[in-house]
Amino acid sequence: MVQILIHAVEQGLLYGIAALGVFITYRILSFPDLTVDGSFVTGAAIASSLLVMGVNPLLALGVALLAGVLAGTVTGLLNTRLGITDLLAGVLSMIMLYSINLRIMGRPNISLLRTDTIIRQVEHTFSFLGGFAILGFIALVVLAIKVGLDLFFKTEIGLALRATGDNEAMITAQGVNTKTMKVAGLALSNGLVALSGALVAQYSGFADVGMGVGTIVTGLAAVIIGGSLLRSRRVVWMTTSVLVGSLIYRVAVMLALRYGYVIGFQASDLKLVTSLLVIVALVVPAFRARLERRVRAC
Amino acid sequence: MLRLEALRKVFRSGPDLVVALAGVDLHLERGDFLTVIGSNGAGKTTLLNLIAGAFPPTAGRVWIGGQDVTLQPAHCRARRIGRIVQDPLAGTAPNMTIAENLALACQRSGRSFRLALPRRRRTQFLERVGGLRMGLDRRLDDPVYLLSGGERQALTVTMATLSRPDILLLDEHTAALDPANAVAIASLTEQFVDDLGLTTVMVTHNMEQAIALGNRLAMMHKGEILTQLLGEEKAKMHVEGLIALFARRHITEDELLLERIP
Q: Which of A170, A181, A182, A232 would best serve as a mutation to test chain B binding (most B beta carbons within 10 A)?
């Protein structure tokens, strides 16, 4: 049981990186970005293909991140320069990435079971830590990313990015090109999502062209679960809450998969239940506000 | 400092055509303070939008400090322009703190990956906000959505001073406030215009205010500047005189929809 819980925490942290990406677009930029369903796989596909070719795992992670940055940039340009609405720009990128991901992998899935992944290297190098080597490594990587993001959002450019999502007219009047800011935010977000995909592929030992379906929804689930537990508008607490949300979500998934059969739950029901969870989480605050004001819908 | 040449703006086309600005010429020297009055739809806000670059003019040119900025997008010329509008919510980012909003206004040296709120800046902000005597210095890390309309407008004015513009555009920026706050914000603005020697264009519905403030006054109607009063002529003007001026152009007081009482 402890071993399974550790696995759930490891997954929660790895998918937490993608959730941080979703947080940047959804919460900071107020831009619902669907590109992530594609860029998550792009990261996994690129890292896996490179690893199979014998490339250094760190380098493979770097290339995967850059590919995500590129994918986000494309969505950003579709939206800001060509005037395609945010949702549609993301959908178009996502669908384009589906074909591109298949091109990258050359087949629908790649197995990494016989490949020297970064996870296996860590396990080998820090074998004296036993079962906690991988958990420690993942926790350090995720913590570094979180602290890096927190610092970035305290810089002048980071502040301008937050203001772009908060009051676009105001920050334009302060001399910021909000189009550039949106592209940069989308690039950063999808870079993180692709990095997450690359790590998840190495962790689970395979990349599959369908592994990204629902990344946006699980990301939102983490953002919303975390946000409802840790209500704060300070960025440091918001990024913390996203990671906590991702952990809780993965533990819940683990429990559902393990004990859900009692109520007839199947693994294939996961995406349905997750989406219902997000719907409830999105609707409850509005509903509660309406109750408080005693206003009826007409 | 600011020069407008035959500035014209037409919205929509064909039978729906609206001429918002029908050719406006204006020349302001550094330190000039122009107040603009006129009825609804006279083109006052369009005039400010064209100066700020919210959209390009249909015809004519805009010069700022000897540079033709007619086709420059808003964010490029924003460094030289401060703008405060009627809505107190418009000038600040609600989910960011007072200190962060102030830091957003410090843009003269450009933006980089420096930390936005080093201790030196916080001390400077504390002093600035403390000078408002609104108790905001104790709330530097509060998000701005918690502030009242008057407090938010005071913050917007303070931000405009920090950004050190050459030109200040005021669009009825005291109209949405209660009388006490309106007076406080007006005097705060006046003080900072004097201190920095800004070139200012102020749109107002309030005739008393239009006469009391600044060294020039323009009356607009249907997209044109009808009359401009300068120096002595403006200093001697009073509300009755202004109404008489409008009457001579066959514009009634009702049409003006101006407030006579401050």
A: A170
Cβ distance of B115 and A173 shorter than 8 Å: no
3-state SS of A30-64 is CCCCCCHHHHHHHHHHHHHHHHHCCCCHHHHHHHH
Its pTM stands at 0.87
Helix axes B149-162, B98-105, angle to 10 degrees: 30
A159 touches chain B (CB under 8 A): yes
Domain boundaries, chain B: 1-82+166-212+221-244+255-262, 94-164
B197 or A199: whose pLDDT is higher? A199
d(CA A216, CA A15): 11
Minimal C-alpha gap between B60 and chain A (Å): 23
Do residues A25 and A186 make contact, with C-beta atoms less than 8 angstroms apart? yes
Contact B28, B1 (CB under 8 A): yes
Indicate which of B72, B79, B95 best probes the interface with A, i.e. most A CBs within 10 Å of its own CB.
B95
Q: CA of B160, closest CA in chain A: separation in Å?
A: 9
The listed CATH number (3.40.50.300, 3.50.50.60, 3.40.640.10, 3.40.50.150) that belongs to domain B1-82+166-212+221-244+255-262: 3.40.50.300
Q: Are residues A44 and A105 in contact, defined by beta-carbon separation less than 8 angstroms?
A: no
Q: Which of residues 233-292 of A touch B (CB under 8 A)?
A: 233
Q: How far apart are CA A23 and CA B49, in angstroms?
A: 34
Which pLDDT does position B261 carry in this prediction?
A: 45
Name the residue type at position A23: F
Domains in chain A, please, with CATH?
Answer: 2-293 (1.10.3470)
- The pLDDT of residue B262: 42
Please determine, for residue A232, whether its predicted confidence score (pLDDT) is greater than 50: yes
C-alpha distances (whole Å) from A124 to each of A51, A64, A131, A214, B174 are 17, 23, 11, 33, 69
- Judged by DSSP in three states, A280 sits in helix
Looking at CA atoms only, how far is residue B105 from chain A in angstroms?
6
